[in-house]
Design brief:
Elements lengths: L2 H9 L25 H7 L11 H22 L15 H26 L2 E2 L3 E2 L11 H8 L4 H26 L3 H12 L6 H36 L12 H49 L4 H44 L13 H33 L1 H6 L10 H12 L6 E2 L2 E2 L2 H20 L7
Antiparallel strand pairs: 1-2, 3-4
Helix pairs in contact: 2-3, 3-7, 3-8, 4-6, 4-9, 6-9, 6-10, 7-9, 8-9, 8-11, 9-10, 9-11, 10-11
Keywords: Membrane, Transmembrane, Transmembrane helix
Length: 457
């Protein structure tokens, strides 16, 4: 059934935009939505008026403010095809999509090489020792200046970063990235029959916008830290004659652009995971509220849960691996940067950057490494709550008074047997484990402060 026709049934009235039958599959419905001028006008007052607005209006707002800019970013970084019209046969559009993706991978590779040439480490900036003035060999001078390990500081992190991107491209292209639009549509349709659906709509829209805004701020702040480190450092590129000022300036600009591109790629992929985890959390919460507030057929509700389990499996087994690869790199940057700031390093600490920008850099890596775990823990918590809903439904005499007892018992047994959780690195992520980790980090910070490692030097 078409979304507009569904909204008519859910909202109890006509919805502007027509009621044509859709011939597309459910996974492609979000990409084929059409809206009238009246719905677009309603978008302007969606978050400002408490009046009754349709599900179509809310989806229009999400598409305009959240989904459309985000899908454009996916196209821009090569995760989705630039030309989507011709995907069935080999054509010029398909050839262009492959060429564009290959160019993106080559551009990422150029950034990795430039970081090595400039001895630029993402965990601490430009790390140089004083040059050996007794030698006139450029390679020998560079080896004395750059004290970073080629394997552990450049090669392995960059290879992992590239693997995460290539894997994400494979997942996004194989699913055509219809998962997020169809999931967003499913969530808003599921809450349309709840008593407080409009409050939930506004809250969910606001949450999704916050995720997109925070992701953009992280990219901007990361770019600011890179530019500040570059402005405060005397940069020398390996194999480049430092007397060629124009060439050095051009390579510096290219280094900044490539680094920004690296951050944008992983921020968008992690954002996709967080958005889908948030939508799944809301979806399961709405299914729980729907069962509590309304009498339902057990088989119908169980089908909804099974659909949720399929979406959860896609999150755990398709989206999570790429996020895990990026998180592995980000955690290594955060921990290495913290130990370097505390002067716990095998080599002498000599930094041309101020301590403030280094703390900001480490904080950014810690934040982007922690966010997926927080979202996974929230999703797992809702999954654990749903296991006990059978007992809650069995003890509610008014909502389900007309439902036979054996059907309520079937819901109780079904919910008790559910084993659902969000996983990262193949491990279920729960709030209690996350809380223990945060507490442990707090204790470590207190101990380091008492041992005078956190004193300004």
């Amino acid at each position: 059934m078409d979304l507009v026709q569904t909204c008519k049934n859910n909202d109890g009235g006509g919805v502007a935009g027509g009621g044509e039958e859709s011939t597309r599959t459910p996974n492609n419905r979000a990409s084929s939505l059409t809206f009238s001028v009246g719905d677009i006008a309603d978008v302007q007052v969606l978050l400002e008026t408490p009046s009754h607005y349709s599900v179509t209006t809310v989806l229009t707002y999400c598409k305009k403010k959240i989904l459309r800019p985000y899908l454009w970013l996916l196209n821009f970084v090569g995760l989705r095809p630039i030309c989507i019209e011709c995907q069935d046969t080999f054509s010029c559009a398909e050839f262009f999509n492959y060429v564009y993706t290959i160019h993106i991978i080559m551009f990422l590779g150029v950034g990795y090489v430039l970081q090595y040439m400039a001895c630029f480490r993402r965990d601490r900036g430009f790390g140089y020792n004083k040059p050996n003035l007794l030698s006139s060999t450029p390679d020998y001078v560079f080896e004395q200046i750059c004290r970073s390990s080629l394997t552990f500081s450049f090669f392995l992190p960059n290879i992992l970063h590239l693997m995460g991107y290539v894997y994400a491209v494979t997942v996004f292209r194989s699913s055509d990235d219809d998962q997020l639009p169809s999931l967003m549509e499913r969530v808003f349709l599921s809450l349309s029959n709840l008593s407080d659906c409009f409050v939930c709509q506004k809250k969910l829209v606001r949450t999704l916008r916050i995720f997109v805004t925070v992701s953009g701020m992280w990219i901007i702040l990361s770019s600011v830290s890179v530019n500040y480190m570059m402005a405060e450092s005397t940069i020398e590129f390996k194999w480049i004659d430092k007397n060629s000022q124009a060439m050095v300036l051009l390579i510096k600009i290219l280094l900044v652009i490539c680094t920004l591109w690296h951050d944008m790629v992983q921020a968008i992929i992690i954002l996709n995971y967080c958005l889908q985890a948030q939508l799944l959390t809301a979806y399961l919460s709405f299914l729980r509220a729907k069962l509590i507030q309304q009498p339902l057929l057990p088989t119908e509700w169980m089908k909804d849960i099974e659909e949720f389990r399929k979406l959860l499996m896609f999150l755990n087994y398709h989206l999570a691996p790429a996020v895990c690869v990026f998180t592995l790199v980000n955690v290594s940057y955060a921990v290495s940067g913290i130990l370097w700031i505390l002067d716990i390093d095998n080599l002498d600490r000599e930094s041309v950057s101020t301590i403030g920008i280094n703390i900001m850099n480490v904080s950014l890596w810690s934040f982007i490494a922690l966010v997926p775990f927080v979202q996974a823990a929230k999703l797992t918590n809702v999954c654990e709550i749903i296991r006990g809903i059978g007992h809650e439904v069995r003890t509610r005499p008014f909502v389900h008074q007309s439902t036979p007892g054996h059907k309520l018992d079937s819901i109780l047994l079904y919910c008790s047997s559910l084993r659902m959780n969000a996983t990262l690195f193949g491990v279920p992520i729960t709030i209690r484990y996350l809380g223990f980790f945060v507490t442990l980090c707090g204790v470590i910070i207190l101990v380091l402060g008492q041992l005078h490692y956190l004193n300004a030097k």
